[in-house]
Amino acid sequence: xxxxxxxxxxGALVAVVIALGIYVYRExxxxxxxxxxxxxxxxxxQQN
Length: 48
Fold this sequence. Notes:
It is a single chain. The protein has one helix at 2-28; strands spanning 34-39, 42-47. The longest helix has 27 residues, at 2-28. The chain is 56% helix and 25% strand. It is elongated. It is an alpha+beta fold.
């Protein structure tokens, strides 16, 4: 039982590291400049 808990904790930590890596990668590859969105709510402009 104790070994299963250890595997669960290690698996959770691996999942967190992968999710954090994906988040950092997406933030680094996000285009710089101005973002213009046109949707049902209207037009929005954001500076990145």
